[in-house]
TrEMBL record:
<keyword id="KW-0808">Transferase</keyword>
<dbReference type="InterPro" id="IPR029044">
    <property type="entry name" value="Nucleotide-diphossugar_trans"/>
</dbReference>
<dbReference type="GO" id="GO:0005737">
    <property type="term" value="C:cytoplasm"/>
</dbReference>
<keyword id="KW-1133">Transmembrane helix</keyword>
<dbReference type="GO" id="GO:0016757">
    <property type="term" value="F:glycosyltransferase activity"/>
</dbReference>
<keyword id="KW-0812">Transmembrane</keyword>
<protein>
    <submittedName>
        <fullName>Glycosyl transferase family 2</fullName>
    </submittedName>
</protein>
<dbReference type="Pfam" id="PF13704">
    <property type="entry name" value="Glyco_tranf_2_4"/>
</dbReference>
<keyword id="KW-0472">Membrane</keyword>
<dbReference type="GO" id="GO:0016020">
    <property type="term" value="C:membrane"/>
</dbReference>
Length: 338
């Protein structure tokens, strides 16, 4: 295996405009060579930002075929599944040594070397799969949306040492790009029945997963003792106000999932403060500043912020906003919040 294998990251997006530059810059910092993004039906400038990042060489941006399949075939297709199947046909995917499945609200935190995926691969001796546990981050008191870094301002998460009953969390995986061994999927690859090659599959501490895990479709793993080398920060809520926009947008993987106050309540985890990702902030802020020297990209970002704020103001009249504020203990002006 080469010392620095090429890595491609895949995701789908809809109405994520204000958060794209930070996330793409972070992926570049941790060693992702190219991000493949398939977008659909955005109205907040997401496509403009992604197109410009494509022009600059950071992203391969394509329309998600799920729009066409829904429109013309009249059969609901999950954007993530359709987009993923299409992305595997691209040159960027085919030429990559490893594939990282990582959404725009997910940030792998590598605790070895220079904080890159390459350092993690070297430390773990280039396994076939690294499945990292995810740590949910709550709003942490961030009610109002601000055009500031998510990685800097959201610092409270699930417990560092969860009890046995709540020790499981979803994983996200960095997978060797070998179609004869695996079928890559959102959380972890599936081993092909016809595969006869030995597989080395480790967790975020470099420990081998059990044979049972490899053969299963399980997307969760016991968090305990698995994050000494790597973990994925999952900012699934962001601020209370930004969550309103997420709720309106819906879910890319589970079409029937309700993104409501119950979803919010189960993911608003603010047990322990953790700032491990802050080691990357100086480099991240520098790269974001460099990207924004491109006047077009900076303008598209600013326009998306304005649209995000306008959508928030519209959605704040909903009962969902009042329910969310009640959950976090904030009084709603003119409402019934506490």
């Amino acid at each position: 295996m080469m010392s620095e294998p090429s890595i491609v990251c895949f995701t789908v997006m809809k109405n994520e405009g204000p958060f794209i530059i930070e996330w793409v810059a972070y992926q570049r910092l941790i060693g992702v060579n190219k991000v493949i993004v398939l977008s659909n039906d955005s109205d907040d400038g997401t496509d403009d930002i992604l197109n410009r990042l494509d022009d600059l060489g950071y992203v391969r941006h394509l329309p998600n075929p799920s729009m066409m399949s829904t429109r013309f075939i009249r059969k609901q297709k999950h954007p993530h599944i359709v987009g993923f199947n299409y992305a595997t046909l691209t040159r960027e995917w085919k030429e990559a040594d490893y594939v990282l499945m990582c959404d725009v609200d997910e940030f792998p935190v590598i605790k070895v070397g220079d904080g890159s995926l390459h350092a993690l691969l070297k430390k773990t001796e280039f396994p076939d799969v690294i499945s990292m546990n995810t740590a949910l981050y709550g709003v942490g008191g961030n009610v109002t949306y601000k055009d500031e870094l998510i990685t800097k301002n959201f610092n409270f998460r699930t417990p560092h040492r969860p009890g046995e009953k709540k020790s499981g969390s979803e994983v996200k995986s960095l997978t060797r790009n070998d179609p004869d061994m695996f079928r890559v999927a959102n959380h972890r690859p599936m081993v092909l029945e016809e595969n006869d090659k030995p597989i080395r599959w480790v967790d975020g501490a470099g420990n081998d997963f059990s044979h049972e895990f490899l053969k299963s479709h399980e997307k969760r793993a016991d968090f305990r003792g698995r994050d000494s080398l790597a973990v994925v920060n999952h900012y699934s809520l962001r601020s209370v106000e930004s969550f309103l926009v997420k709720s309106e947008r819906g879910d890319a993987v589970m079409a029937n999932r309700d993104i409501d106050h119950r979803y919010f309540n189960t993911r608003n985890r603010n047990h322990d403060e953790n700032k491990d990702i802050h080691r990357m902030l100086p480099q991240l802020e520098a790269l974001i500043a460099e990207l924004k020297t491109d006047a077009q990209l900076a303008g598209f970002h600013d326009a998306s912020v304005v649209k995000h704020q306008a959508k928030i103001e519209k959605l704040k009249s909903s009962s969902l906003y009042e329910n969310l504020c009640r959950i976090v203990g904030v009084r709603v002006e003119g409402g019934q919040g506490n």
